[in-house]
Automatic annotation (TrEMBL):
InterPro entries: DUF1996 (IPR018535). It comes from Pseudomassariella vexata. Residues 36-274 form the DUF1996 domain. It comes from the Eukaryota. This is DUF1996 domain-containing protein. It holds the Pfam family DUF1996. The keyword Translocase does not apply. The keyword Signal applies. Keywords: Signal. Residues 1-19 form the signal peptide. PANTHER family: DOMAIN PROTEIN, PUTATIVE (AFU_ORTHOLOGUE AFUA_6G11970)-RELATED, PTHR43662.
Amino acid sequence: MLWRPLVLAAAAIAPSVDAAATLRFSCSQLVVDRLDPLVNPGMNPSPHLHQVVGGNAFNTTMDPAVHDLPTTATCTSCTPVEDFSNYWTATLFFRARNGTFKRVNTFGNELGFTSAKGGQTVYYLSSGKVTAFKPGFRMTVGDPTFRTAAQLNAKYKYMDFTCLASSMTRGGQTLNFPTSTCAAGIMVSIRFPTCWDGKNTDSPDHQSHVAYPNGNACPSTHPVVVPQVFYETYWDTRPFNDKNIWPTDGSQPFVWSFGDNTGYGIHGDYVFGWKGDALQRAMDNNCNSDLFANQINCPTLQVQSLDQANQCTIKPEVNENLDGWLTELPGGMPIM
Ligand SMILES: *[C@@H]1O[C@H](CO)[C@@H](O)[C@H](O)[C@H]1NC(C)=O
Ligand SMILES: *[C@@H]1O[C@H](CO)[C@@H](O)[C@H](O)[C@H]1NC(C)=O
């Protein structure tokens, strides 16, 4: 049962089983900031709040022509020291019965990464030969405007919520926010498509240069198999499990920072920033990771400790109050 998400994810990629990489590692919180250099480059502040991990070259503008992540960054919050990529998602808020909001923190994945200071777990999965991303590559998955399961199912796959009864809970995933309390927090899983057009490192919607496979094969328009990038974020909803502060109508109280209280607007952002051929080497060497420890079985990658990764942080560019009980979501995002 424990392995199910991994097996499912890998099975979604390609039929060959002669080689497989299940690279899994921790990336501590780099910053929580209202920036989105991919969807809203140059905009400070951007419309909604994000939690960001990875290299410290993350900033308001990350033009690939002038902002090379491996040479601009001086540290990374991920444990592989050659990974200066940035990975980000929206943040969660709890909306109390009285209508005020409290930001929900991320916490270290309890399978191996308890001492990580928040952030998320990142996976690169493959089954068979894959081509690593090229410098400047970036993509998003999901649509923050979606509010129904039908919308989500029609366009995206493999993004869901797990209501953690314990840190070991796997299974029972939903496409919407869990509707009752989750004793050990909420895990959000975001998996990106695995087929690339082989030409464009980005596209106007940041999505159409990648595609999902049809069955096991990549479509002819997007023939190049890339690693499956997969985020797992542990949200610490445990302080909000008192039903006496939940809405009186019994509805669930969590809301994405972009005003979505359904969960269907789930989305993630990725900017590739591995140094040199490090990711290709890791994939070619079928690197894998111990599920229960901060251990990457991959002699070709140099890995730092969680303590070292925790030390890579940056100051938010946007100066706004994110803590305490807020009368509105950052940026005044309406709930709709
Ligand atoms: C982000 O860019 C601003 C403006 O160029 C710069 O002052 C700041 O140091 C940068 N932040 C980081 C973390 O590099
Ligand atoms: C709103 O509710 C929260 C949770 O019960 C509480 O901590 C906070 O003080 C309340 N704020 C106001 C303005 O009543």
